[in-house]
Amino acid sequence: MSDRARLNDLKDILELLYEKLGEFEKELIISSSKPANFELKQRIKCEIIPDIRKYETEYWELYPQEAIIISYEEAETQLVKVEKAVTSLEQIPSSTYPSELISLLQEIRDKLDEDKAASAKLKVVIPLIPAIASYELEMETEGLMYQAWKKLKGVVRR
User: Looking at the DSSP assignment, which residues form a beta bridge with residue 125?
Assistant: First the structure.
């Protein structure tokens, strides 16, 4: 089976699993039976979510990297958004976040504050539905973060 055919199959499977998850979640809201709710929660936790994770992982491993093309301007715009997001998250007391998030924020801040050109790749993971679905983006950043950060610093210092 070709990668393209497998990607189409995985897309169909994921759509069915998301539909099933949605139906189970609706039933949780509607049902007043505690045993039925418990059973639904367990099926979601033990069956549906692991299957979704498995198929999403396979999907993104097969997804062609060259299909994701980001222009310099778009990358610069996204970098500014990342900077704003980090800044706004830093304004909130750190006690409200898990230590894992604090260390990730610090790592991002360190990368943004570096005076040398960034190399390799920038990897961004956005949780679309917490613990269920996330979007992962990886892009080449050779010098991009450095240039965008310098421009941003110049604008802010004026």
Answer: 136
